[in-house]
Amino acid sequence: MENSVLLKQVEDLAQKLEGEFEESLGTPVLKIKGTKVMEALLAAKNFSGSPCDFLHDLTAVDYPDRNEIEVVYHLTSLRGSQMLRIKATVGRDNPVIDSAVKVWAGANVMERECYDLMGVKFNGHPDLKRILLWDDFEGHPLRKDYVTESLEERKRLRVMQPDE
Amino acid sequence: MLRTEEIQINIGPQHPATHGVFRMLVNVDGEVVTKVENKVGYLHRGMEKLAESRTYPQFIPYTDRLDYLAAIVANVGYVQTVEKLMGVEVPERAEYLRVIFMELQRIASHMIATGCASSDLGGLTPFLYCMRDRERILDMFEMTIGSRLTVNLPRIGGVIEPPEEFWPALNQFLDDMPGIIDEYNGIITGNEIFQVRTKGIGKLSKEMAEQLSATGPVLRASGVKWDTRKNAPYGIYDRFDFDVPTGENGDCFDRYYVRILEMVESAKIIRQAVRDIPEGPTFAKVPKMIKPPAGEVYHRIEGVRGELGFYIVSDGTTKPYRLRMRGGSFINIQMLPLVVPGWKVGDLIAILASLDIVLPECDR
Asked: Could you give the CA distance from residue B200 to residue A57 in angstroms, rounded to a whole number?
């Protein structure tokens, strides 16, 4: 089974990068520090037998209790049904991680979205600016401590103010 | 010789050719495009944030608003993700019904794509032919659940049983399907003006498509034989016999024609599903309170515009801790700034039409 080949390789990689390896509902998960993400992505891209060479998705999850943000990569391939989840942990106060644009050009908009909504800065991204929200928007809405406006405030916002 | 100067023009967001509220900042030198910048986000509703304050069943109607032309596909993708997390086994009949509805929805959506490919290039009549045929599918949805566009059809654990008059309508539609495809081929595919405007325009190479994480018909038109239904099956798709149509050149014409061929394959899947569908219940026993165990799940399905992925992080409560949706449009649209420079403004519209983006899915 190609899945067992992949599991073995992910396990070896976890050891090499001092990360953790687990399996969640049939998907191998590799948990590493944010500084080692490029090594992990390049290694996963070149796995022999079952490479994970297609960047399927890139997102981030906020964990305020641990003061961490996890940048989550879902790697698949166009040559098999394998899927690998790489979770890179960065500090919540100054989340900086290497950009994957050099490996996959398609990471461009996904990283911009991640920066926009979660505030993760990607080192080496060619054009890191907001994509879904407007440029002078304050804050990153998908963070858990982002305060959404109250209903009263929304009612006020719906009506055009005289100075607008 | 006349001196030309590069100017920047703005296309969209309110323009029929941009398929919604997509905006492009285009630098043109005469009529030749030199640079394109995508501007998205006009339809951003913060769905991922909204999900964090909704219970799992409450979020199903929101997935309708993800891709309004293919609501059922997103619905099923979401409920299958929750089912995967909870370990719910869906009854056989419900699985078959979901396949029938999803493929009908795929045909309906591809009909719009086909019609738009023509209408954006100036041929308005074929668009009305496509709308006419799509109407029959929407009527079937209306029969089943009462609404036509944002149907909100499946539930966690099952799907609604269609009424009796659904089956004759479906069979009649399947019988008419070859004629419908012939008509499209006659009126659009075979049209010389359409061919000249699309063949060889906006080529996306195989390597580039893969680099850009493109999925769906855009990827297949570039010659990659990859379909999640076939290569990484979910639900019961491994039981059906169908082909994965691919293009050769990755130009506008291939992106258009792959969709026509996909409609034929979808009709083939529906026929097999109608033949094999067993009797039985359509709902599994699920608890009243949907409370998945703590954990993470990623589920990907073949959406109409590319792979649709749902990533749920659950903390064991009734609301998701984090829900991420990966839409095909958002990622496929990246090819525009790379492919368009060098083509004329009219070709830009042809390329955009062939991508068949839907902005709510892009902006979420």
From this structure: 30
Residues in A closer than 8 angstroms to B40, CB to CB, are: 131-132
Distance in angstroms (rounded) separating the CA atoms of residues A92 and B337: 33
Tokens 């099952």, located at residue: B158
d(CA B22, CA B13): 5
- Residue B271 phi, psi dihedral angles, 5° rounding: -55, -45
Interface subset of B 304-343, CB within 8 angstroms of A? 307, 309, 311, 313, 321-322, 324, 326, 330-331, 333-334
What's the token pair of residue B330? 């958002």
The answer to whether B198 touches B256, Cβ cutoff 8 Å, is yes
DSSP A35: G
Cis bond before residue B13 (omega within 30° of 0) = yes
pTM of the model: 0.87
Q: Which two structure tokens, joined as six digits, stand for A63?
A: 């964990």
Q: Are strands B158-159 and B154-155 parallel, antiparallel or unpaired?
A: antiparallel
Q: Name the region of B295 (left: φ>0; alpha: ψ -120 to 50; beta: rest).
A: left
Element (H, E) at A56: strand A54-63
- Angle between the N-to-C axes of helices B252-276 and B345-355, in degrees from 0 to 180, rounded to the nearest 10: 20
Q: Contact A55/B213, CB-based, under 8 Å? A: yes
Strand ranges in B144-195 using DSSP code E only, listed in sequence order: 154-155, 158-159
User: What is the spatial order of strands in the sheet that B322-326 belongs to?
Assistant: B295-303, B306-314, B322-326
3-state SS track over B87-140 = CCCCCHHHHHHHHHHHHHHHHHHHHHHHHHHHHCCCCHHHHHHHHHHHHHHHHH
Count CA atoms closer than 13 A to A21's CA, side-chain side. Answer: 16
Instruction: Assign B107 a pLDDT band (cuts: 50, 70, 90).
Output: very high
> What CA–CA distance (Å, rounded) separates B246 from B217?
8
- pLDDT above 60 (res A154): yes
| DSSP single-letter state for residue B13 | S
Do β-strands A83-91 and A27-33 pair in parallel, antiparallel, or remain unpaired? parallel
A78–chain B Cβ distance below 8 A for any pair: yes
Helix (H, G, I), strand (E, B) or coil at B220: helix
pLDDT in tens, A7-63: 777 777 767 777 777 877 778 888 888 888 888 888 878 777 778 788 888 889 988
CA distances from B260 to A3, B17, B240 (A): 35, 21, 19
Residue indicated by tokens 């026929």: B271
Task: Tell me B18's DSSP state.
Answer: G
Kindly write down the DSSP assignment for every residue of B11-70, as one continuous string. E-SSBGGGTBS-EEEEEEETTEEEEEEEE--TT---HHHHHTTS-TGGGHHHHHTTSTTS
Q: Are B333 and B37 in contact (CB under 8 A)?
A: no
- A106 to B364: CB separation less than 8 angstroms, yes or no: no
3-state class of A70 per DSSP? strand
Report in angstroms the alpha-carbon separations of B80 from B86, B124, B256, B327.
10, 38, 29, 16
